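anyone seen this seq b4? input:
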Amino acid sequence: MNPVTLNRYAPERHIKAPTGSDLHCKHWGAEAPMRMLMNNLDPEVAENPAELIVYGGVGRAARDWDSFDQIISALKNLEEDETLLIQSGKPVGVFRTHHQAPRVLIANSNLVPHWATLEHFSELDQRGLMMYGQMTAGSWIYIGSQGIVQGTYETFVELARQHFDGSFEGRWILTAGLGGMGGAQPLAATMSGASLIAVECNMQSIESRLRTRYLDAWADNLDDAIKLVEDAHAGGRAISVGLLGNAADVFPDIAARSSQDPRYLPDVVTDQTSAHDPQAGYLPKG
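predicted toks r here
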């Protein structure tokens, strides 16, 4: 495989979608998807905008920065009877269609099943021939953790109904990951009446969830995290706590301690990390 230099890192770029009623494209049919794409890469929205990563480990909004610029340019010049075709984050054509046709058609990460392996996809990705678009990153419709709060809340409420007589009072959930998807769990848990400890290896992710109030508190060791939960329960409250650490280390520690002391035994264990990509979704033990 020949080495390819990809323009995928631009920390100096800060994308903000325009707001208001002024058009920057020729019509609203192109203005809307342009704003959606730009909003996906807003620093207040994307997990790693410098690398075009919106969420989910490596879920990108565009294949590279050159492709991003080409998409914006194409949208600004798109006529009302034309359709822009995007293949895995890269614009590959503008076609004359009709007024009722979609203005943008997007296909992400499509591989013939025989070659649909992580190894083959990674090779194409490294050669700049493909990208992973997640579900809403490459389709430009990501709205942050709020998009999964309701479904997570409903899951927790149903879990309480089936296993805890409908109430999470005095109970706590153990999970890992406070990224774009996992970051919804702390708020969904406290909304459903449960406390939650989320192990997260990235302090910036913890700070982000604290700033947006998806998370109530944080600790840098397990004992302090447990104490925060116990104090909240003593006051009749539920609390969400971000625990700075690696789940690969913390979970076995909790399992070992809970066999001797029930204080460390969670009532529920969940996982919402990027399991589709072990290279980007997990941090090895140690």
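The CA atoms of residues 67 and 90 lie 5 Å apart. The domain at 146-281 is CATH 3.40.50.10730 (Rossmann fold). kinda curious what u guys think
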